[in-house]
Each structure stands twice: as structure tokens, then as C-alpha cells.
């Protein structure tokens, strides 16, 4: 499973893109998206998902 970004809640601050250890988050069109093929949910690297931990809006980076 991968994470996804709820576009309607996203402020487009970019924090998640820079914190993602698997480089799975990119700005596409007018929103940030998570590439499910690259997203590892930070398993084996961190105790919490880095996108969710740095996002200023709660519950914007969520399991897909």
C-alpha cells in the first residue's frame, strides 16, 4: 500500500516532497501526487511516514 495526498486539503507548501526518503512525491499539474510504485510508507527507515509528519494540515497525507 502507498500513501496519497488529499488534493483539496493540500496547501502546496512542498514540505512532503523534500522529506520523502523514497522520492515518491512530485508536483504534477496543479497538485502534489504520490507515486505508488515508489512509496514505501517509510517502512524500515522511519517510525512514522515523513510526508504526514511534516504536513501542516492534519490528515492530508493518508494511506491510499
TrEMBL record:
<feature type="domain" description="4Fe-4S ferredoxin-type">
    <location>
        <begin position="1"/>
        <end position="30"/>
    </location>
</feature>
<keyword id="KW-0813">Transport</keyword>
<protein>
    <recommendedName>
        <fullName>Ferredoxin-like protein in nif region</fullName>
    </recommendedName>
</protein>
<keyword id="KW-0535">Nitrogen fixation</keyword>
<dbReference type="InterPro" id="IPR017900">
    <property type="entry name" value="4Fe4S_Fe_S_CS"/>
</dbReference>
<keyword id="KW-0411">Iron-sulfur</keyword>
<keyword id="KW-0408">Iron</keyword>
<keyword id="KW-0004">4Fe-4S</keyword>
<dbReference type="Pfam" id="PF12838">
    <property type="entry name" value="Fer4_7"/>
</dbReference>
<dbReference type="GO" id="GO:0051539">
    <property type="term" value="F:4 iron, 4 sulfur cluster binding"/>
</dbReference>
<keyword id="KW-0479">Metal-binding</keyword>
<dbReference type="GO" id="GO:0046872">
    <property type="term" value="F:metal ion binding"/>
</dbReference>
<dbReference type="InterPro" id="IPR017896">
    <property type="entry name" value="4Fe4S_Fe-S-bd"/>
</dbReference>
<keyword id="KW-0249">Electron transport</keyword>
Amino acid at each position: 500500500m502507498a500513501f496519497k495526498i488529499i488534493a483539496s486539503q493540500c496547501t502546496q507548501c512542498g514540505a512532503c516532497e523534500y522529506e520523502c526518503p523514497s522520492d515518491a512525491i512530485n508536483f504534477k499539474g496543479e497538485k502534489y501526487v504520490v507515486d505508488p510504485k515508489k512509496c514505501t510508507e517509510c517502512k524500515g527507515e522511519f517510525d512514522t511516514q515523513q510526508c504526514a509528519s511534516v504536513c501542516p494540515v492534519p490528515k492530508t497525507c493518508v494511506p491510499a
